[in-house]
Amino acid sequence: MLSRILIAAIVVTLSGSDVFSAEVSELAKGKVPDAALLKLAPKSGFITDTKTFAKLWKAWRPDQAVPEIDFTKDMVIVGTADGPNLVMFEPKLQGDGDLKFVVASTRMFGPGFGYRLVKIARQGVKSVNGKSIEEGIVQGTITIPDSTTVEQGETIEVKLFEFDPLLADAPAKLIDEKILTEIQHETGPSTEIPFALGSDLEVQKDCRYYITVFVLQGSDRTHIGEIEGKRGLNVVLQNGDRSPVNLILRPLKK
């Protein structure tokens, strides 16, 4: 039986001479029977760190060793489709540095999902389907749990600090900060808010880094964000690890 081709609902306009076919290295393609593992696919369609890639690979291809990838030079493009289908796409690099791709697949009904993973050089790539790959050296999400209430008008303050552990009397240095506004959250499903800090930061090997996250009502702090909900200092960039972090909000006692 011939399989029909399903084009994903992404409309991309490719313009003449400013478009170049991106050279890719095939990493893997296949089908996973457990649809629950589809959640490991990045919503952005790309991976730029070792930890995220290793987690996905071990879940989708548990019998094979994780390929070694230098994420300072390369990145991984991820395409998926519901059902036991073959996945196809051809990345195109625009003149402005935006790498665009549209996912296509066979259209077979059944459990699980299909996927394709390719490696591509980061050189010349500024964004993927319009999403920047260099928003900040520290990236992640802030999770507002389903039972947490965030009042209208409240904002989220995110700050990145640097300190020298050998200088006990020296205060931490504020490197970058963001104020997230127009937060939309309803009691029920949890809400994830992406953030990025330190786009101009040059990591110093002798320094340490941490972030703080607070929900503000005026100047009052109503909630605090903690990495994976664990209390303590939100340490980031340990040993140069740039893996995304997830901070979970909890209310502060009044």
TrEMBL record:
Top-level division of the source organism's lineage: Bacteria
Protein name: Uncharacterized protein
